């Protein structure tokens, strides 16, 4: 039966999230954009997997994927992760970027600097670290040998793996089994996106893509002061001198080729 694995995965997902309320943020819309509608994907064994539409309550202004003016100095094609502002950017030409809302776990603030995407996985498997099993055996002991990819896996539909040279940083950009966590700080994990967002970002991310993870100082300088709402979301502390965001189509626009990696794709 799938019931037990799915319930275990939900328990893991809930354990990785900060407590939240059921009150929908006032900025959420009652309409779900096409890019966040339900999808049917192909699972690791070739089986169809149904991905539910994102609920309107989770699509706050900062969580929704949108084209924005970009004030950083990163090259087009770069992925920029700001774990302190809880946003991720895919940089385009002309001073613009596509912004995504993200959930940030403790591991999400444990790395900063430059890295390269050296591995990509669809419906990735997941194994808790030895430290996770040791410190929380009641939660992770049953999955110490790992969980296969699929709807019961907390990494969600896709994962991007960051490397420095030949070293795995253990930093991941991935989907989530808990869309309510996006935009919030969570107790575990790295950088989570809505499954729909990571699926589209995955397709636009070649091997060798450069990634920049901001420091707290860089985040403060580029994003300005932020405040956390009772719902757990971040909002600008005051008026921000940014241009209005533009809706984007279901497919991300093509980006310029990133700096080529010395490691061949494959």
Features:
single chain, 266 residues, alpha+beta, L,D-transpeptidase catalytic domain-like, ten-stranded mixed beta sheet, two-stranded antiparallel sheet, globular, disordered N terminus, disordered C terminus
Structural overview:
This protein has helices at 3-15, 130-135, 137-140, 195-203, 216-223, and strands at residues 39-42, 48-51, 66-69, 79-82, 87-91, 96-101, 103-104, 113-122, 158-164, 167-174, 191-192, 210-213, 226-228, 234-236. Helix content is 15%, strand content 25%. It is of the alpha+beta class. A hairpin with a 5-residue loop joins strand 1 (39-42) and strand 2 (48-51). The chain is built from five helices and 14 strands.
Task: Sum this structure up briefly.
This protein has helices spanning 3-15, 130-135, 137-140, 195-203, 216-223, and strands at 39-42, 48-51, 66-69, 79-82, 87-91, 96-101, 103-104, 113-122, 158-164, 167-174, 191-192, 210-213, 226-228, 234-236.
């Amino acid at each position: 039966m799938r019931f037990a694995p799915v319930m275990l995965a939900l328990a893991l997902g809930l354990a990785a999230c900060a407590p939240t309320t059921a009150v929908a943020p006032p900025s959420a819309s009652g309409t779900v954009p096409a890019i966040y509608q339900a999808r049917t994907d192909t699972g690791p064994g070739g089986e169809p997997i149904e991905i539910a539409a994102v609920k309107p309550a989770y699509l706050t202004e900062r969580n929704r994927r949108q084209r924005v003016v970009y004030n950083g100095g990163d090259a087009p094609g770069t992925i920029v992760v700001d774990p302190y502002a809880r946003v991720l950017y895919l940089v385009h030409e002309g001073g613009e970027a596509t912004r995504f809302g993200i959930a940030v776990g403790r591991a999400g603030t444990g790395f900063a600097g430059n890295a390269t995407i050296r591995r990509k996985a669809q419906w990735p498997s997941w194994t808790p670290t030895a430290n996770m099993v040791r410190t929380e055996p009641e939660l992770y002991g049953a999955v110490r040998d790992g969980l296969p990819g699929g709807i019961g896996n907390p990494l969600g539909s896709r994962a991007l793996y960051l490397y420095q040279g030949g070293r795995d940083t253990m930093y991941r950009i991935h989907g989530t089994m808990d869309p309510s966590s996006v935009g919030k700080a969570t107790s575990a994990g790295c950088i989570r996106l809505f499954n729909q967002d990571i699926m589209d970002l995955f397709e636009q991310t070649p091997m060798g893509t450069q990634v920049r993870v901001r420091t707290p100082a860089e985040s403060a300088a580029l994003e300005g002061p932020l405040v956390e709402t009772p719902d757990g979301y971040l909002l600008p502390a005051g008026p921000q001198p940014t241009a209005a965001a533009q809706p984007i189509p279901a497919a991300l626009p093509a980006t310029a080729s990133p700096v080529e990696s010395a490691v061949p794709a494959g």
